[in-house]
Amino acid sequence: MRLLRHLFARSARHLFPEDSLHRIADAIAAGELRHRGEILFAVESELSPGMVLRGVQARARAEAAFARLRAWDTEVNNGVLIYLLLADHRIEIVADRGLNGLVSAEQWRGVCQLMEERMQAGEPEQAVVRGIQAVSDLLAQHFPQIDGTPDRDELPNLPLILD
Start and end of every TPM domain (predicted)? Predict the structure, then answer.
């Protein structure tokens, strides 16, 4: 059954057309005005048949994307990847080590649940924007902006569609 879901998955470009990607980028930029963290959003439509047959799961793909996209390469190790694997209906959040002990697994799961609700309602863009806002709330608690200190954008705001 999983193999069929991946073979016939809806395209990420269908759910997230260009104008939607730009609105998501705007949400990331707006959130990052409130904190010194870095948020990256990536979506993947499906996995290759070989990956599915080998049992590759969404979490492993998210962790691989986190490394490949260099989300760990921020000055204070506070990058966060929000990853969506459409074929498996999975949302994964991978946070860098600077957030260890600051944000609990339950808090990250809460963000995923917010997103899942909107995805199930057929609102993929709103799901991502709500997730970004929730992650920004958590980052603002632990890495607030410091007045008078410039904060550089270390990761791209434009969402990535992984093919």
Answer: 14-137
Question: How confident is residue 133, by pLDDT bands cut at 50, 70 and 90?
Answer: very high
Q: What is the pLDDT of residue 147?
A: 82
Task: Find all residues with CB under 8 Å of 81, minimum gap 6, and list them.
Answer: 40, 41, 42, 62, 65, 66, 69, 71, 92, 93, 94, 95
Q: Could you tell me the residue ranges of all domains in the chain?
A: 2-162
Q: Over the chain, what HEC string results?
A: CHHHHHHCCCCHHHHCCHHHHHHHHHHHHHHHCCECCEEEEEEECCCCHHHHHHCCCHHHHHHHHHHHCCCCCCCCCCEEEEEEEHHHCEEEEEECHHHCCCCCHHHHHHHHHHHHHHHHCCCHHHHHHHHHHHHHHHHHHHCECCCCCCCCCCCCCCCEEEC
Residue of 109, 130, 120, 110 whose CA lies nearest to 41: 130
pLDDT at 148 over 80: no
User: What per-residue confidence (pLDDT) applies to 136?
Assistant: 98
CATH number of 2-162: 3.10.310.50
